Amino acid sequence: MTVKKRVAILISGRGSNMSALIEAARAPDYPAEIVGVFSNRSDAPGLAIAAAAGIPTAFRSHKDFPDRESFDAAIQAILDEWRADLVCLAGYMRIFSTGFAERWTGRMLNIHPSLLPRHKGLKPQLQALDAGDAESGCTVHWVIPDLDDGPAILQRRVPILPGDTAETLAARILAEEHIAYPQALAMVCRGEVAL
Ligand code: GAR
């Protein structure tokens, strides 16, 4: 049997993608185990969900650290404690120091609710509507030091329908995110893709 990769998840909020990864990792043949969930917000609903699933959780606030580097060093210490092989960002809304991002390059994934490279940054669903796009979707990609950038691992597409709002489009995309992220993580863990 192949050894499962030890995966830490970083969140800032709801944690529905985190939940999708936790759920997928319950399958005996899934190639990853979720070893911990970190949040930079104590009120992230995902923290309680992870704890209820029996997964170790940790929280640190950047307000308790003098700069980005020392905050990221605190995250690194937690990842070391969990002996994480890989990091999955799942709605983690804080920019990393270059050093941290470089250290995890090739071992850190993110999911973004647009067909990257289109619509990086905030409110990508609204950006897609404003641009008059006929379709949108989600992208699981490698994290490199530039925000919302790095080569795509997997994309799933959805149509943009007449009358769509940012909310209806976000919901349609989110359903695809919950399929895409577990699939992309499995591909990475099985060595089918690499940066
Ligand atoms: C998801 O839609 C994710 O793609 C997005 O935040 C949401 C988090 O939801 N991430 C980004 O926009 C990253 N730039 P979740 O907490 O329910 O997984």
TrEMBL record:
Give any Pfam family that matches.
Formyl_trans_N
Task: Indicate the annotated site residue(s) for Raises pKa of active site His.
Answer: 148
Q: Which reaction does it catalyse?
A: N(1)-(5-phospho-beta-D-ribosyl)glycinamide + (6R)-10-formyltetrahydrofolate = N(2)-formyl-N(1)-(5-phospho-beta-D-ribosyl)glycinamide + (6S)-5,6,7,8-tetrahydrofolate + H(+)
Q: What are the BP-aspect GO terms?
A: 'de novo' IMP biosynthetic process
Enumerate the residues binding (6R)-10-formyltetrahydrofolate. Answer: 68, 110
Q: Which UniProt keywords apply?
A: Purine biosynthesis, Transferase
Lineage top rank: taxon: Bacteria
Q: Does the record's keyword annotation contain Endoplasmic reticulum? A: no
Q: Which family does it belong to?
A: Belongs to the GART family.
Q: Which HAMAP family match?
A: PurN
Q: What does this protein do?
A: Catalyzes the transfer of a formyl group from 10-formyltetrahydrofolate to 5-phospho-ribosyl-glycinamide (GAR), producing 5-phospho-ribosyl-N-formylglycinamide (FGAR) and tetrahydrofolate.
* Protein's name according to its UniProt entry: Phosphoribosylglycinamide formyltransferase
Origin organism is Devosia nanyangense
What gene does the UniProt entry assign to this protein? Answer: purN
